[in-house]
Every structure is written in structure tokens, then in C-alpha cells.
Design goal:
Blueprint (H helix, E strand, L loop, with lengths): L8 H13 L5 H23 L8 H12 L8 H29 L12 H4 L1 H17 L1 H11 L4 H8 L3 H20 L13
Helix pairs in contact: 1-2, 2-3, 2-4, 3-4, 6-7, 6-9, 7-9, 8-9
């Protein structure tokens, strides 16, 4: 049997895929290391093709896909492996676009007729400002930012209150305050903190 150095790159990668399928220790790390450059190129191309470039970094897309696929053991060969990553990249972009659309609705921005996977194409700069505002919100109001993160992921206010072990009225008050704060950021008031901190 040829050594990895003597085998063709494709044969070597197929062998690593088989090792992953057979739960060989360290095989997953070897496979990811060997394929990471190509995965980054695939991620960049997919972000550009789906008009989501600038809203998500290729490295972040690869990392999130790896988290979703790290328990995958059923790849047939390297082509199947790459195809699985490509499909996962698409699902992640759609998920992020849907969350961005929910952010737009949350702060009262004009709704877009675009489908969720095109949400970034119409106003990428606006969505980047929203994402930046959410990061600043975490500095101004950490608890509010945690609530908003769950809210944007589709949790109901009742579910958030139960998960964080706080009163429902507190969740409602935080959501309202954060919505107003984010809206002020978007309309250009130029005031990151209006001096009001939600009561507990």
C-alpha cells in the first residue's frame, strides 16, 4: 500500500475520509487540516454567489459548518465530504439571513420583499451596522444583549424568562429598551447610551 506521500492527493483524502468513518483517532483533525484551504475558498465563493459577502467571514462560515458536522461519520469519499460542506454553508447563510431579516423587523426598519437567503443583498451595509450595534449593546447592557440574542434566534419571551430564570416582565422591559436603543443607533441619533438602564 502506498504511503500518504506516494498516494495521490485525492487518494490520500479518500483514505482520511475512510479513517473518519471508521473512527480512527485523530483522523478528523487530519482531514480538516488537509481540506481547510479548499473549504475557505468554497466558503468565500458561496458567500459571494449568495450575495452575503461582508456579512460573514469565510473562516467563520467554515468554523460554524465544522461544529454542525463534527459528528459526521458517514461520508463516502472526499467528493461527498465537500458536497456536504457546501450544502451546510448554504443552510448557515440562510439561517443568518433569516436572523438579519428578524433584526430589521425588530428595530422597525422597512420590510424587504426579498426571500430570506437574499436578505443581505439589498442592504448589506445596513445589516452590518445592525450587527455592530448588537456588539455594542453587549457592552452597554449585557443582560439585554443576551435576551436579544435568544429573541433573534426565535425564542419566545416566556422561553427566555424560563431559561434565564428571570421574571417575564423583566424580559419584556429589556426587549423594549433594547429595541429603542437599536433603533436610535440606526436612525443616527449618535447616542450609544441614552442614560437609561432597565430596572431589574
Amino acid at each position: 500500500m502506498p504511503t500518504p506521500e506516494e498516494a495521490s492527493p485525492r487518494e490520500h483524502l479518500n483514505r482520511l475520509v475512510a479513517d473518519v468513518r471508521n473512527c480512527v483517532p485523530g483522523a478528523m483533525d487530519q482531514l480538516l487540516g488537509a481540506t481547510h484551504p479548499r473549504l475557505l475558498k468554497m466558503a468565500e465563493l458561496q458567500l459571494r454567489n449568495e450575495q452575503y459577502w461582508g456579512l460573514l467571514e469565510p473562516s467563520a462560515l467554515v468554523n460554524e459548518a465544522f461544529v454542525r458536522l463534527r459528528n459526521g461519520r458517514e461520508w463516502v469519499d472526499i467528493s461527498h465530504y465537500y458536497n456536504t460542506y457546501a450544502l451546510t454553508f448554504h443552510h448557515i447563510i440562510v439561517d443568518h439571513a433569516r436572523q438579519a431579516a428578524r433584526m430589521r423587523e425588530l428595530v422597525g426598519l422597512e420590510e424587504t420583499p426579498d426571500p430570506p437567503w437574499k436578505a443581505g443583498s439589498r442592504s448589506a451595509e445596513e445589516l452590518m451596522v445592525l450587527a455592530s450595534s448588537l456588539r455594542r449593546l453587549a457592552e452597554v447592557n449585557p443582560r439585554g444583549a443576551e435576551i436579544m440574542d435568544r429573541f433573534l434566534k426565535g425564542f419566545t419571551q416566556d422561553e427566555i424568562a424560563a431559561a434565564l430564570k428571570i421574571a417575564l416582565r423583566t424580559v419584556k422591559r429589556e426587549v423594549q429598551w433594547c429595541r429603542e436603543w437599536l433603533r436610535n443607533q440606526m436612525v443616527g441619533d449618535g447616542v450609544a447610551d441614552n442614560g437609561h438602564t432597565p430596572r431589574t
